Amino acid sequence: MAAIRWRKDRAAAIRLRMNAPNRLRLDGAALVENWRTLARMSGCAACGAAVKADGYGLGATAVVKRLADAGCRDFFVATWAEAAALARPDLSLSVLHGVRAADMPIATRIAARPVLSTPAQIQRWREAGMGACDVMVDTGMNRLGVAPDDIASGLLDGLQVETLMSHLASAEEAGASINERQRAALRSIADRSGARRVSLANSAGVALGSDYAFDLTRPGIALYGGVPCPRLSGLIRPVATIQAEVLQRREVPAGGRVGYNLTWTAKRDSSVAVVNLGYADGYRRAFSNCGTAFVGDVAVPVIGRVSMDLTAVDVTSLDVSEGDWISFDSDLAHASAASDVSQYELLTGLGRRFDRIWS
Ligand SMILES: *Cc1c(COP(=O)(O)O)cnc(C)c1O
Questions:
Q1: CA 306 to CA 308: how far, in whole Å?
Q2: Which of 131, 189, 256, 351 has its CA 20 to 30 A from that of 148?
Q3: Using one digit for the tens of pLDDT, what is the confidence trace for 112-145?
Q4: Model-level pTM?
Q5: How far is ligand 1, taken at its centre, from the CA of residue 87, in Å?
Q6: Phi and psi dihedrals of 242, rounded to 5?
């Protein structure tokens, strides 16, 4: 009896989640159009997609399906758990964090390649007699990657390297001299590596021009509506829009104050909508008193502190009532400037409570 009741309760919980009081509206056409724009800008190079961190918070399975249908063939994740959820025999999937001893059982089973970035990882892969891999070479960022000198001394000899990669430290600063130094360092080691393909550019790297594209580009943030550098502005469409339901509308007389620590004071008699959204959903506390919401096309300010599960919006003289839905700023560059939170963090912090609805 208890088991049956538990199953019924669980089914009800799943139905309730689909009826969540907040949701992410996800624009599949915009995602695909952003990828096509970046593919065009990549020239002769293939254009892949970074889908780590659950597709930057949007949902990696849904992202991969749409981009694969559009013709994208190369995908990048950080971990083997992410890879296991996405691997498909018709796609190239690279695991950016390489392969630890603990990853070997899964790494030998699924259709994904590690991006080897240390001599120990390379030895592990070689000793296991494994086939194709990718390799990360560090060209100046000092994050992940083997040293160019080690490649020159034969570190990769005998290894079947599919893609030799490096990663740009300052791609969003078009004038930074490190960009050209990294590009030249990768170029000079590419032939010695024996790699079939070479890859350097992330989203902002694609905007640096065809010299940076090599054989394969790896955009992430711009696919999802982020604009990491001025050259991409006007070319990238927003993909994700937060919407939240109004839980209560209240009238606050002039002088009344709102939210934790009463940080907002009504300058006039005001109407306030309190919505089902908070920092536990990834709507950051940094939007307190500076976020933007929309009632239809009318921009309205977020007022007071963003709480864990609730946010207040000034809807004075607008027709908004309990049960209505309010949208939040989907212009990531704008939201990032207002909150001083990076576009990457705004997306990857999007929470698990949203009903993710693709159109
Ligand atoms: C995350 C990541 C990317 C994608 O970077 P964006 O700035 O989001 O375009 C590309 N390459 C590597 C190695 C990464 O870690």
A1: 7
A2: 131
A3: 999 999 999 999 999 999 999 999 999 999 999 9
A4: 0.95
A5: 19
A6: -80, 135
